[in-house]
């Protein structure tokens, strides 16, 4: 093992695949986590909201949530509202990590392609760890003891609703991505991401 070199290769792979899409699966997009009720957070902290100008013709409201989370509420000209959560801690957006591990585990279970046995087991173990964090720190807060039941229900829905159009023969890039997230080199990245309780938002995703 050459930790420094391995870490460089891992970082390059993750950056290269940060906007990677295969079929309906797009890494770097808020897809699965959605465990933060942004409307509820904004309602609870109404006095702390500040105007943030405009983005693409949409009015922006900003809300800072410690430690280091920025929430944005974008209101379009027709009144449509969208939300974005940005993790500015530098420790990683946990919602992004959940999305990535969830999709890899779901595909590994449901699709013809599966990662090697050891990698599949590590992906499942890490997904469960992330899920406990997501439930404990999301809004509304959920009991981390319910993580197994909650996660299995979502995986079952994925298998029923998404697998028929998501499964295929992914290229080597996806297999390499799974290997990177299951690797020993990624362990300290995950440890750092889960060290501090905070909202599990999904941006920036890698």
In short:
47% of the residues lie in helices and 16% in strands. The protein is α+β, with helices and mostly antiparallel strands and 206 residues long. The protein folds into 2 domains: 3-34 and 91-193, no CATH class; 38-87, no CATH class.
Characterise the protein shown here.
The two termini are 24 Å apart. Helix 3 (94-110) crosses helix 4 and helix 4 crosses helix 7. By secondary structure, the chain is of the alpha+beta class. Helix content is 47%, strand content 16%. The longest helix is centred in the middle third of the chain and has 21 residues, at 117-137. The protein is built from 8 helices and 6 strands, in the order H-E-E-H-E-E-E-E-H-H-H-H-H-H.
Q: Uncertain spans, ≥5 residues at pLDDT below 50?
A: 1-32
**What is the overall number of helices?**
8
Q: Between the first and last Cα atoms, what is the distance in angstroms? A: 24 Å
Number of domains: 2
Which class of secondary structure composition applies to the elements? Answer: alpha+beta
Strand order of the largest sheet: 3-4-5-6
Encode the helix/strand succession as letters: HEEHEEEEHHHHHH
Largest sheet at a glance? 4 strands, antiparallel
Mean of pLDDT: 85
Q: What is the tally of beta strands?
A: 6
Shape: globular
Radius of gyration: 18 Å
Helix content class: 40-55%
β-sheet strand percentage: 15-25%
